[in-house]
Design goal:
single chain, alpha+beta, Arc Repressor Mutant, subunit A, globular
């Protein structure tokens, strides 16, 4: 029942920048049926990628505005569509599955949903791999680049956070998912940041808590201490920062299985170890989340095909043998989320 409706919803989501590919198992439809009622699905198919007021959507759909406004807000609260607040006015738009619907399920995630997405993510990940533009990038921790004479402003995460007017902290959906799946992680659960409109959305949905700039900087310190990779939105103007571990993060877990993860991650640095200084203590080995460091005789060695330039190995080296150097030919991130989505759409042949 309603099979054609959910097929249409799948195709609709696949035409959004992040995509929602079909699979041979049909698990992508199971996810949609779990999240969207038929009424939800019908309404989503009538939404646009840009925010509109209930009055504008009512005019196009014929649904009475008051009833429609209540339904749109209900769907936004369930993480199925995105809400933008402009003062007292609320606008709504369709939102992609990743980054979007999946991350917005913090309040309702259960074992069945986790099993579905674990089955689906390899297919979704394969669809991302050929794209030049990524939705996330790896940013080096500040302690790894402090001594560098010149660092691009978009890689100075602490400076970018200081510029934010609205910051929210949310639990990590990946660590929550892995906990539900019986693979708990001992790292802090609440260490992912959202900013601006994303922060307002999470606060309105009561899945995040507001932080001051000073509190956010302390949480960045905790992320560094916990050996978490900083993966902000692949934009110069921040929308979010994920703090990722190699045992839970869906992206890092799959990258670890590859021989050359550096080729598929947008990053700007690579680590190197001075063999003359290294004492093979293993501290860097323990902190690496992508298995890019190995022991080679009496020294540690970085595999540049695996290193993603997060810098976690740099400040904790007791003999200062580890450092980062900038990759050649790096591409400047898109200015903002709109530009990033435009690039993704063009690369996927949607624009």
């Amino acid at each position: 029942m309603h099979e054609e409706l959910y097929k249409n919803l799948r195709e609709f989501l696949d035409k959004l920048p992040g995509g929602y590919p079909e699979t041979p198992t049909g698990v992508e439809i199971k996810i949609l049926k779990k999240l969207f009622t038929p009424e939800d699905a019908e309404l989503t198919l009538n939404l646009r990628q840009t925010p509109e007021t209930p009055a504008e959507i009512s005019k196009r759909t014929g649904i009475p505005e008051k009833k429609l406004a209540e339904k749109l807000e209900d769907m936004a609260l369930r993480g199925l569509i995105f809400r933008v607040r402009e003062g007292d006015q609320r606008k709504y738009q369709a939102v992609q599955f990743i980054v979007g619907i999946y991350e917005f399920q913090l309040a309702t995630i259960d074992r069945e949903f986790c099993e579905y997405v674990e089955e689906y993510f390899p297919y979704l990940g394969m669809s991302f791999m050929p794209l030049e533009t990524k939705q996330l990038r790896v940013a080096p921790i500040d302690a790894a680049i402090d001594a560098m004479p010149e660092v691009a402003t978009y890689n100075k995460i602490r400076d970018l956070v200081k510029q934010q007017k609205l910051i929210a902290m949310v639990p990590c959906i990946c660590r929550k998912e892995q906990g539900i799946m019986g693979k708990p992680c001992d790292r802090p659960k609440e260490l992912c940041f959202s900013f601006g409109e994303f922060a307002q959305y999470t606060l309105d949905n009561k899945v995040g808590r507001q932080l001051t700039v000073e509190e956010a900087l302390k949480m960045l310190d905790l992320a560094e201490e916990s050996a978490l990779v900083l993966q902000p939105s692949n934009t110069q103007e921040l929308s979010w920062i994920c703090s990722c571990c190699g045992c839970c993060c869906g992206g890092l877990r799959r990258m670890k299985m590859m021989e050359n993860p550096a080729d598929y991650v947008r990053s700007y640095y690579t680590a190197t170890i001075d063999a003359d200084l290294c004492t093979a203590c293993g501290t860097c080995l323990d902190r690496c989340q992508i298995d890019a460091i190995k022991e080679n005789g009496e020294v540690m060695e970085v595999d540049p095909a695996r290193c993603i330039g997060c810098g976690l190995c740099v400040p904790t080296c007791p003999v200062e043998a580890v450092s980062l150097f900038e990759k050649a030919g790096v591409v400047t991130p898109p200015k903002d989320l709109n530009e990033m989505m435009d690039r993704l759409s063009k690369e996927r042949g949607l624009a």
